[in-house]
Amino acid sequence: MRSMLFVPGDSPRKFEKASEGKADALIIDLEDSVVAEKKPEARTLTLAMLRKRPGPHQLYVRVNALDTGMTLADLAAVLPGRPDGIVLPKSQGGDDVRLVATWLEALEAASGIAVGTTRIVCVATETASSIFGLGSYKGCSPRLAGLMWGAEDLSASLGATAKASGGVFHSPYRLARDLCLMAAAAAEVAPIDTVYTDIDNLAGLEQETRAARRDGFSAKALIHPKHVDIVNAAFEPTDAERAWAEKVIAAFASNPNSGTLRLDGQMIDRPHLRAAKKILGQP
Prior knowledge:
single chain, TIM Barrel, 2 domains, eight-stranded parallel beta barrel, 10 helices, globular
């Protein structure tokens, strides 16, 4: 999964448009993109969107945060539509995942869904306190599929006046990004890069996405359909990377009992083999 496109939960029209694109996943949003008075209607519309399932996309639903008191009602409303997963905003750590997982178990059983099917992706850096919970996700639930970092709400939590200058995040946000990446790696789940908000700056989007892939992120969240193709392309291995990976795998296949090898004048070892398999999508 490379691209996860947010779609307002109260807009079937935007859902239809998003479904025509090539995003790997659509996140139907019940949180920030839906005003309070429209949330009940958005739950009903979201269930209809899930049941329609017009394309091959994975379908996630971003519910409201636990501190709103609306999360359980959101889950109860949309689980009959069998979403592939739930996005939990403002997550504080592994205990939040365990709580949501408990609710999902009961709701899956009530809806005739195999227990354990619905995955959880957490937006894990939206408050200052959440940063200190990043180490608690490891082993918290087999449902946990990814950790996404976010800057917009974190800015408000910090009381900051700006997040970035010249397209470069300031140090608190770089810290949140990097810690989220490491937490996801430690938990062995997908690290998901934050949305790019300068909608028409496609060159900047590509640059940021390539930097995310370079550092280890495997996917990016998106807020506009025209970002999808750029992000998907940026996460694809280059021809040079594919060629290198194939050579590394071939070298170890020819020397299965070796821990280290010499390849093109460079020492390679088993971590290089794991990296090569990841580039080619091999287990």
